[in-house]
Amino acid sequence: MSKIRVMDENLANKIAAGEVVEKCSSIVKELTENSVDAGATEIQVHLRDGGLTSISVIDNGSGMDESDAKLAFQRHATSKLYKDDDLFFIDTLGFRGEALPSIASVSHVALKTSTGDVGTYLEIEGGKLIVCENADARKGTILSIDHLFYNTPARLKYLKSEQSELGSCVSFIERFALAHPHVAFTLINDDRTLVKTSGSSNLLKTIHEVYGLSISSKMLEVRASNDDFDLYGYICKPEVLKSNRNHMIVIVNGRVIRNLDILRAINDAYYTYKPDIKYPVVVLKIDTDPTLIDVNIHPTKQDIKINKMNVLYELIVSTIKEALYQNLLIPDAVERMSNYNPVKQKVMESIVKEQDEVYEKAESVQATFDFSEERKKEDDSPIIYNQEMKTLKLYPVGLAHGTYIIAENEEGVYLIDQHAAQERVNYERNMKFLKGKEVATTTLLFPITIELSNSEFLKLKEQEEILQDMGFGIEEFGVNTFVFKSHPTWLLEGHEEESIRKIIDLIIGGLNGFDRVKFNESIAITLACKMSIKANMHISHEAQEELLNELCMCDNPYNCPHGRPTIIKFSIYDLERMFKRAMN
Prior knowledge:
By secondary structure, the chain is of the alpha+beta class. It is built from 20 helices and 24 strands. The strands form six sheets. It has an eight-stranded mixed sheet. Helix 9 (260-269) packs parallel to helix 10 (309-327).
């Protein structure tokens, strides 16, 4: 007797449901994507108990006739693909024909749909058609899901709490609304409206409707193109940062994705503008030829493969950096304080915590990506200097707590973090030395001996030319030992050995080989910190003036290389309001 049998279709659908339907937001995703593919301009999502009890999606799309409505619940039935070549030109959100039969196999489904003529009403339980009858002729589709995983209890018990499931649904609809600002979205849970967008086709207005004024007012428009990709979207100023990556929203050909390489490109563009543990709010739309991407690599289509990723990386980094250079301004202290709401921040962080944990797991598996060639090209591009600081004409009037320089001009009062400010000055000075073609060196009166382990010695021996190119005089000296007889003049006096050891660690510690550009940045930051005056260290009035003058000449005077602000402004009007001199 044959052991191999053709699997029952309902069983196959249940297996597929294990990949497609992970939680309530998975159903919301699949149904709303179908609505957008059907040309809907208004989509309503109604939830009960965060989707655990019921999920309904109502749209005004093209609808279906009776025959299509029945076929839609058969496995691999789709209106998006007809032949093999179509797989390389996918321009719709759905295409596999798996979602509806998978959902129907593990729930109770009620469908009411019409193309504008006689409508169709279907009821399906566990994948079996129970009711099929005529319905009203309202154009569009209403699809309701009840009793999710009622016949697969192992899956049912792994659904999260109501709050967690609701948070995932809200997060998805917010992202999806940003991907399709021409569609009016409404999400209602237990008769309470949680998300509502106007469908105005204005991306900035949609950002405002999703995130509010405190974020939308701090967004900068970006737009760029090359032969392969078109970029459009909004990025936040560095003063608006989040503690997770969930607000870095990437949309490729209308599809919301989470691609590690693209997110890393966005994060790299903010390098030295923010702390490493903080992440920007970004809504970035990428349009490209469908043949350059593969959307058929993930069960839920949340990730894609991109051809010419190095070209896209360079375009993203250069576009965002240019926007930051052109638009950065000194943050207003009063506005920063009024926008901070610790209660709201805590609630939002709890909602996205689960999704961020999934992302962290994925990122930990991803190997460190070597972008040295792209960064080299970026360094060769002309720098756009921000002019605001050069026009301020600041005059120091005091020092608070030996840490903050108090300065003023006719516009208001400014607080400057002396350590962060000098760190920025020293960082840019160090980078100029490191990028210079000619290296000035100095001979050590007492050579420095560095002993390494066997593996470290072999790795450094392989990269010895890098040290020589940087201006180090290095020779082998005994077993697993190098002696340094000279070094470049930019090395901090009194910290030569410590700096050399740091450089060696950077050279031999890279997973994908040595990246000279990243090394330059890392060592410039490290040395800048050590060279700078510390907090609680009183400096003279002349030293304050000199530091302000040097800061004004910096390429980016607004952040230290770790991303912390160097200067904050209290305008005259802000001061008058705080002291009740101005009451409006």
